[in-house]
Amino acid sequence: MRRSNKAALVVTAVAALSASAYGVSAADMGTATVNTGSTVAADSVSWNHGTAQANKRIMERFTSEFLPTGDPALAKQFLSPDIVIHFAGTTQQGRDTYLGIVAANQKAFPDLKWTVEDMRAEGDTVAIRYTMTGTHEGPFAGYEGTGKKVHAESMAFYRLAHGKIVEERAQLDMLTILQQIGAIPTA
Questions:
Q1: Are the CB atoms for 32 and 49 separated by under 8 Å?
Q2: Residue 109 DSSP symbol
Q3: How far apart, in whole angstroms, are the C-alpha atoms of residue 87 and residue 39?
Q4: Cβ(50)–Cβ(57) under 8 Å?
Q5: Of 168, 187, 183, whose CA–CA distance to 82 is shortest?
Q6: Of 95, 96, 63, whose CA–CA distance to 80 is shortest?
Q7: Which residues are paired to 151 by β-bridges?
Q8: Fewer CB in a 10 Å sphere around the end CB: N or C, the chain?
Q9: Helices and strands (DSSP H and E) totals, the chain
Q10: How wide is the angle at C-alpha 96 spanned by C-alphas 93 and 99, nearest 5°?
Q11: What is the CA radius of gyration of the chain?
């Protein structure tokens, strides 16, 4: 076997092991083939697609396991210690900050539920469209609990590196929530 083919096999094997650690199958990545020269090519799907699919699987677990609980042990699995969070014109940083935001939301809406309506992945980024529902029972955006039900849409873009979320850009329909709790009059 030529030396260049050995390197290609090692790269292919490492990629397959990395993907399997995140639950990505060979079908998700495409079938790698070794050319007679020194390059490796995917038959139908690029490695970028394999990364996107691995990241999507991580986010599926994040939304089904971490978001409903806010469990700090799970946060360590999914969130980088230095995660950067962009929301409502602010930028914040750190896993502890993220956990604080999740805890405050759970206090404000004890029955808070995030439903994934759509999820798309490309490269290192996963976009998710959510529906948020809950009952306003605690402080939120400067307003004490009202007992009113809320239902709002949200979108977030997550950037992942090494299997963890390193950046989140979120857009929650705050106007609708504030109208539903009576903080802002409806038109």
A1: no
A2: -
A3: 43
A4: no
A5: 168
A6: 95
A7: 133
A8: C
A9: 6, 8
A10: 105
A11: 21
What pLDDT shows up at residue 8?
38
Number of Cβ within 10 Å of residue 8's Cβ equals 21
Per residue in 46-85, pLDDT tens?
445 579 999 999 999 999 999 999 999 999 999 999 999 9
Residues across the chain: 187
Give the predicted TM-score (pTM) of the model: 0.73
- Residue 31: count of CB within 10 angstroms of its CB: 12
- Please state, rounded to an integer, the average pLDDT across all residues of the chain: 81
* Residue 27, SS3 per DSSP: helix
- The SS3 assignment for 148 reads coil
Token pair 């400067």 in the structure block, residue: 142
Strand partners, 139: none
Looking at residue 28, its amino acid is D
